[in-house]
Design goal:
By secondary structure, this protein is mainly α. The chain is built from eleven helices and four strands; from the N terminus they run H-H-H-H-H-H-H-H-H-E-E-H-E-E-H.
């Protein structure tokens, strides 16, 4: 919970760290907001023994981290504008299909407020698509399958998240798409195979996912902190690693130290 709280504090500070309203800054803040919500969802689900939806949410967290890293790596506004325009293009396509489908039109007309909402969203998407601010990236975005113009694998590689892609992202996709029905069954003693209970009490998978999500979020905080010029926190922490030793460390280092003492860090790189 401390990691989430720290992120919420950090999120509130982002608006005052830069006076500009560049698309890049706004997109970073938007992705960071979604990261905090997703992190809290993972924590809440695991606390209630709902590990499988937490696995799916963790996959979303990995995608958000990937997108954030790609936007931050581009010092210009190009990647941020590509991301915004792509979802406007995709949103308009999806909504256009919905309003043109005969069955959907019949059902939605019975709820006129919903139908008007669809039309309003489509007009909003069109304003973005027609905006001169996106003309230089429009051609690439319109022919791309993803906003970054890469495959999922290549995007993770470019974001320097190859290990996360192979060991974590792929495994969680089974829970997103519901294609691993065998996970719902378990051997139940002499009675053979039975359906698992709805709530899982085995702490091992939960702690693994919690550790992965926790250290992922701390990495994200540090990434944004460094991108914004390493703004100094007003307070530092004093630690005593051994008798007679005392020294001050920054808030992020203190947070990481506390997390490591509670949860292993699956992301830790091996020491050569």
């Amino acid at each position: 919970m401390m990691v989430i709280d720290h992120g919420c504090f950090f999120f509130k500070q982002l608006g005052s760290l830069r006076s500009s309203l560049r698309p890049r800054d706004l997109v970073i803040q938007g992705i960071f907001r979604r990261i905090l919500i997703t992190g809290e969802a993972i924590r809440s689900l695991l606390a209630r023994g709902l590990e499988e939806p937490a696995f799916a949410a963790y996959r979303t967290l990995l995608e958000l981290e990937r997108d954030l890293r790609l936007v931050i790596a581009d010092r210009s506004d190009t990647s941020a504008r590509r991301l915004v325009l792509f979802f406007a293009v995709k949103g308009r396509r999806d909504f256009d299909k919905a309003t043109k489908n005969a069955t959907t039109r019949t059902l939605s007309k019975s709820d006129s407020d919903f139908f008007r909402w669809l039309r309003t969203r489509m007009r909003s998407f069109r304003e973005w698509i027609d905006s001169a601010d996106y003309r230089d990236v429009a051609e690439e975005v319109n022919r791309a399958d993803h906003w970054h113009g890469l495959t999922h694998k290549d995007a993770f590689y470019k974001a320097e998240m190859a290990t996360e892609y192979h060991l974590e992202y792929g495994a969680r996709s089974l829970f997103v798409h519901g294609s691993n029905v065998e996970y719902d069954f378990a051997t139940s003693g002499s009675s053979g195979i039975g359906v698992k209970p709805l709530v899982q009490r085995d702490t091992a998978p939960a702690l693994t996912t919690l550790g992965q999500a926790t250290h992922s979020m701390i990495d994200i905080y540090r990434l944004i902190w460094e991108d914004h010029g390493k703004p100094q926190y007003q307070e530092s922490f004093t630690v005593e690693p051994a008798a007679g030793e005392r020294f001050a460390i920054g808030a992020l280092d203190a947070l990481a130290t506390q997390a490591i003492n509670i949860l292993p860090n699956p992301r830790a790189k091996p020491v050569p």
